[in-house]
Amino acid sequence: MWHVDTAAAEAIAVGAGILGTGGGGNPYLGKLHLQRLLREGAAPPTVVAPDEVPDDALIVTVGGMGAPTVGIERLARGDEWTVALRTLEKHLGRRADYLVPGEIGGANATRPLVCAIQTGLPVIDGDGMGRAFPELQMKTFSIYGVKATPAALCDVRHNTAIFPDLPDTATLERYARAVTIQMGGHAGYAFVPMAGAALKRCVIPHTMTLARDLGAAVLRARREHTDPLDAVLGIVGGQRLFAGKITDVERRMAAGFARGAVRLDGLGAWRAETLTIEFQNENLIARKGADPAGGEIVAAVPDLICIVDSETGAPVTTEVLRYGLRATVLGVPAPALLRTPAALAVVGPGAFGYAVDYRPLPGTFGVGTDS
Amino acid sequence: MWHVDTAAAEAIAVGAGILGTGGGGNPYLGKLHLQRLLREGAAPPTVVAPDEVPDDALIVTVGGMGAPTVGIERLARGDEWTVALRTLEKHLGRRADYLVPGEIGGANATRPLVCAIQTGLPVIDGDGMGRAFPELQMKTFSIYGVKATPAALCDVRHNTAIFPDLPDTATLERYARAVTIQMGGHAGYAFVPMAGAALKRCVIPHTMTLARDLGAAVLRARREHTDPLDAVLGIVGGQRLFAGKITDVERRMAAGFARGAVRLDGLGAWRAETLTIEFQNENLIARKGADPAGGEIVAAVPDLICIVDSETGAPVTTEVLRYGLRATVLGVPAPALLRTPAALAVVGPGAFGYAVDYRPLPGTFGVGTDS
């Protein structure tokens, strides 16, 4: 058990940004919110390891859904997830005992911490993705059979919606996404109410700690003028896939998602080479060459394709990709729970429409590599 | 108080079809369902005048929403509205005492009668439109200040959604429409839970009786070989606006609605004239000439523009408009509750994007005219 103080919040935002693989929304605003609440005297949120949770405790996933692009011009009210949680609790007739992040990558790492302060509830050290993914059914909770409903949504005006009982999370994804778009493109959610026993079976453990340590290592490297990319790989594992300059970005909003591709022309060891990465909120597949459909695959979902600023190690999210940026592409092996056949059916390349085999990157998620 | 027997069901389906002004969905399937339940021994639904309802009774609007076009190829399960009602009752913590049709025009006239058999509840002799309209906020209940939420939707697979508290019915329309589209284009609903006192203030009264009498008059005219159109006008009021042959239909699905225009070339007294009617599920505006944007306005919402088969008086709904059909266009004065400034702001031509003044057709809704 540990507590999220101001310094930890700073580190988590950096680490969660990198684990967001381009999506998940920028955790920066959530971090500012969290730090303001702490400065105003709020008790730092408690982070609890999954194995400390009683089997009969009620754990609820809280966070936000919508295209990260929307978040740039429209601020969240800041308590959408908490009103969604209260709506869900009222529907269930029972209070939640713990909160758990749906995804540790991006803004949904910091929102449960804000909700923890607003509710006084502890947060689980773990999440349902070990990264970020664009759709709700891509959480390990859903992949390993935990029902996502009852589910509640809340928008910036505190308008709410409840889905009492849907047959699967993909249906919730469709219904909730349609409401989220009408809600202005962003909604707070509270769903996957589950028992402690179910949580322990399917959570990706210790990822809040991982985000904190990852961010702390990057911040330390910046202070000490060592290589922040070495620091990242030393904590989360994985390898450099490419380094270069962004030379083309194609980005469009489609059905509530930010979709597109980014092209990098190589520098240093990758001079004269080109890499193209396609994304749907998150980076999905990286291929050699300028043709998104043609080149040899370097990495693919569920492995993490993280674009970071080559100098600072700062995460470069989908919505801030821009011409000229010097960036390094890191390939991080996916958590083991995302590499099973059951998981690959939902989060593998085929689930995103790519008719290619998944070739796992070497290494182990969360086990640092020397570089 | 009266009861809906097999003959009344037959008549209501014809009358409701005419009052549907082209939309509202075809009441034919609901009629078949109702008649089957009656044949199987169900007690005929009780129809109760609004002034017989206690002020503190709970009345709920039940029916279906979605584009009528969808209903042609996808049958309703037949109890969506009842599951929506049960979901709403559970959320409210209280059982409903009466059902009320949201719109007497089209399929939502017969669905509450089916729900009445499924639940044993009586049905109010009245509705919220006196016709059909494409959007939820166009009910008198909403126009005159009754809150539409809590609201529940249910789809063909019994998947449900609850909107506990939205600020206005236009917001419910957007949120519920988005879910309805994801539900396959049709959903059963239960909403506008209201007290008897509120019902009496804003219901359009006696429209179930009107639909029954209107249909009965048409059926009698067919049997007796008198003019069914005279029979219609003799019951509901209004006038012949045009008679001719359908020579063009432009119809498209857009945002869950059937939109388009139909052109008729005149016959008899209207020979050498042309009439163009634009619709959004329902017929909205009728203009002289072939140019939808140009000609003199003959009738406009909220007045009822009813297209009927010239020989049989059968209603011609938007989804069955076809080249060559001999049709007569009837103009029926809207109910008084739809002609107030408050109502015209929501259901007048301007609410549908037409920058024209509303010129009321002469006569009184439900008061027959000689022709």
Summing up helix and strand content along with how strands pair, one would put the structural category of chain A as: alpha+beta
Chain pair forming the biggest interface = A-B, 20 and 20 residues
Percent of sequence in beta strands of chain A: 25-35%
What is Rg of chain A? 19 Å
Order of helices and strands of chain A: EHHEEHHEHEEHEEHEHEHHEEEEEEEH
Q: Classify the oligomer.
A: homodimer
**Secondary structure tally, helices of chain A:** 11
Q: Judging by the overall fold, what is the CATH architecture of the largest domain in chain A? A: 3-Layer(aba) Sandwich
Q: What is the percent of helical residues of chain A?
A: 25-40%
| Straight-line N-to-C gap of chain A | 31 Å
CATH level-1 class of the largest domain in chain A: Alpha Beta
Number of domains as seen in the coordinates of chain A: 2
Lateral strand order in the biggest sheet of chain A: 15-14-13-12-11-17-16
Low-confidence stretches of chain A: none
Biggest sheet layout of chain A: 7 strands, antiparallel
**The CATH topology of the largest domain in chain A:** CV3147-like fold
- Average predicted local confidence, pLDDT of chain A: 94
Pfam families (chains A, B): S-Me-THD_C, S-Me-THD_N
Protein name (chains A, B): N-methylhydantoinase (ATP-hydrolyzing)
Domain S-Me-THD-like C-terminal (chains A, B): 169-361
Domain S-Me-THD N-terminal (chains A, B): 9-163
Notes on the protein architecture:
Chains A, B: Residues 169-361 form the S-Me-THD-like C-terminal domain. Chains A, B: Residues 9-163 form the S-Me-THD N-terminal domain. Chains A, B: Pfam families: S-Me-THD_C (PF20906), S-Me-THD_N (PF06032). The structure is a homodimer of 371-residue chains. Chain A is 30% helix and 27% strand. Chain A is α+β, with helices and mostly antiparallel strands and 371 residues long. Chain A has two domains: 2-205, CV3147-like fold, CATH 3.40.1610.10; 226-352, CV3147-like. Chain A starts with a strand and ends in a 24-residue tail after the last helix. Chains A and B meet through strand 8 and helix 7 of A and strand 8 and helix 7 of B.
